[in-house]
Amino acid sequence: MKLDGKVALVTGSSQGIGQAIAVKLASEGAKIVIDYRSHPEGAEETLRQVNEIGSQCHLSKDHAPEGYTVKADLGDVEQVRALVNAAIQHFGHLDILVNNAGMERHAPFWEVREADYDAVLNVNLKGAFFAAQALTQHLIETERPGKIINISSVHEELPFPNFAPYCLSKGGMKMMARDLAVELGPYGITINNVAPGAIETPINTKLLNDAEKLGALLQNIPLNRLGKSEDIATLVAFLASDEANYITGSTFVVDGGLLWNYHEQ
Fold it and tell me: What residues contact 221, with CB distance under 8 A and at least 6 apart?
């Protein structure tokens, strides 16, 4: 397995894309720190799946995948730092950070409230920034290489009317990866973004049940389907592995062709 002996922290891993990433990294041999804010039952399900993989592995207990759950709000920097420290304390070290936690708020630009702007930017960008900082401090202190993988969005490139703060946060994440790639490269730390398009997750349940809106969206996707969480998780596992050691500062779009084919209806 590609990630034997590695420890990975996946933020927002109680459901959807984050849960799929946690399970996939475990299937490649990593020990997983599962972060959640408001879905403890989802975190327990992720933990169950991760530990089930560990119990089926033909590895010693010290090397078999296992999970550890931590509650933390990524919008609070002190909780972010405590989350990273908890991961290090529990497993002894941390190698991989997947900044997956994210949120969005719908409103026309001229009606966006300061509280909603702050909520989105704090979780999507500020939390990711300081989680990466905390991991970096640990890696430099212990003189070890590491991987930072941000789950961005096609909206780091593509305008999304009525979701301005979300687009700003993902645009910032794009530059964060580019800047930190230069700054952290000499320490053997890579950072990349994975930018999903329309993915079939619980957050899109309303869309999935609206045949008219779903049909209009599918017209914009050359592959004519929504993505699966596993489509994202597979790429994250590659970027987290030694096979991707020479890749940094890049965004990898996983959208079925949506970005270059999108047009307003």
Answer: 197, 198, 255, 256, 257, 258, 261
- Choose among 235, 221, 208, 55: nearest CA to 152: 235
Strands (E), 39-155: 67-71, 96-99, 146-151
Does 262 qualify as catalytic in the annotation?
Answer: no
b/e code 177-202 from CB counts within 10 Å (16+ = b): beebbeebeeeebbbbbbbbbbbbbe
**Which of 100, 195, 103 minimizes the C-alpha distance to 148?**
100
Torsion angles phi and psi, residue 222, rounded to 5 = -55, -35
**pTM to 2 decimal places:** 0.95
CB-side exposure of 22: number of CA atoms within 13 Å?
34
- In three-state secondary structure terms, 224 is coil
pLDDT digits (tens, 9 = 90+) for 124-183: 999 999 999 999 999 999 999 999 999 999 999 999 999 999 999 999 999 999 999 999
Which of 181, 169, 199 lies closest to 246 in space, CA to CA?
Answer: 181
The answer to whether residues 195 and 156 touch, using CB atoms and an 8 Å cutoff, is yes
Q: Indicate which residue of 36, 166, 187, 246 is catalytic.
A: 166
224 closest CA partner among 242, 243, 198: 198
Beta-carbon contacts of 153 under 8 Å, excluding residues fewer than 6 positions away, are 102, 166, 170, 195, 196
